Amino acid sequence: MNITLANLIGSEKQIKWAERIRDERMKGMGHYDKTGGVLDWKWIPDNERRTLAAQITTARWWIDHRDCTMSLDLLKMAVEKNEANAEDEKDASKRREQYKRYKEDLRKGRIACPDIDGKLVH
C-alpha cells in the first residue's frame, strides 16, 4: 500500500529533523508474522497506523513525540487535533479576508462607520 505523506509545517530545521523521525517511525509501524519455519518471519506493515501518521502535518509534533510509542490512540488524537487546527486556520483566514474587505469598503466610502458620538462618518 502506497501512503502519501503530508508536507510538514515548521521551520526548515524542524522539518528536516521531523522528516527523519517520521521516516524512521513509519518504517517501524508493523509487526513480524511467522509464515513458516522457526526463522521464517515476514514483516507486515500496520497500514492503519501508517495512514494516520501520514496525515500529521506539524513538524513539532514529530519532534515532541520522537520517543513515544506510536499507538493507534496517540495517532488518532494527533490527527483530530491536526484537523481542528486546520479548521481554526480556515476560520481565521476567512475572518482576515472579511476584515480586509470591510476596511476596503470603509476606505472607498461604500459603508459608513459610526464615530464616538454615533454619527455616521464616511
Number of strands: 4
Low-pLDDT stretches? none
Gross morphology: elongated
Count of distinct structural domains: 1
How does this model look, in words?
The chain is mainly alpha-helical and 122 residues long. The protein is 53% helix and 11% strand. The strands form two sheets. The protein has a two-stranded antiparallel ribbon with strand order 1-2. Strands 3-4 form a two-stranded antiparallel ribbon. The longest helix is centred in the C-terminal third of the chain and has 36 residues, at 72-107.
Attribute tags:
122 residues, mainly alpha, two-stranded antiparallel sheet, two-stranded antiparallel ribbon, 4 strands, elongated
List the helices and strands and how they pair.
Elements (H helix, E strand, L loop, with lengths): L11 H16 L2 E5 L6 E5 L1 H7 L5 H6 L7 H36 L5 E2 L5 E2 L1
Antiparallel strand pairs: 1-2, 3-4
Condensed summary:
With 122 residues, this protein is mostly helical.
